[in-house]
Histidine kinase (Actinocrispum wychmicini), 223 residues
Amino acid sequence: MVLFVGLVELALVRLWHAVLTAERALATNAALAVAEERLRFAADLHDIQGHRLQAIALKGELVAELIGRDDQAARTHAAEIAELARNALAETRALVQGYRRVSLGIELTNAVGVLRAAGIDTEIDGDDLDVPQRLQPLFGALVREGTTNVLRHSHATRCAITVAMAGPAVEVRMRNDGVRPPASDEGTGVAGLRERFGALGGQVRAGVLAGDQFELVGTVRPA
């Protein structure tokens, strides 16, 4: 009888330890999930505000130069600044509310608008609808990062964005001129993209081509 009671107590102690271990694991997983969500939020906020504010700054400098020389052009650019600011505010509000799952098509439209507002001739070749829905946010992030890099790290006059199938894989390619030497193919944004693409078996390539061309390419094979 004593042995039986002892075994029961031992089993209860082990069960209690197992419960505590499971609870700690759940708490750790919850903390990791919160941390990952915060990182995602910070990255998305950086993407939204980064290229919008860069374009606004460039437009503001242009308006200052045009005042007194071409007031009509200055007013046009000032109106575009207001539109860029409104778009940034709307997207930031959507992000804070937790509803932001922007498709690749919307990101492409945003990129064209921001780059053209900065005086960069931008064209898109391909159809974003060819990209599977589950990969849309991933490639959207690549377009956002590429747009920010064009604005920050080049004197670009042209940018070409291509959406295509590379064999069985989906590929989005951004190429611009006006690279500022020395140009680096790495940064926190590109490194983050490499991790996200790598998690799905894809890859990201970034680097300087012949002349003053820079290219950012993301490739993933749909499951």
Q: What stands out?
A: The chain has two domains: 1-100, 120-223. Residues 29-35 have pLDDT under 50 and may be disordered. Residues 120-223 form a domain with the Heat Shock Protein 90 fold (CATH 3.30.565.10).
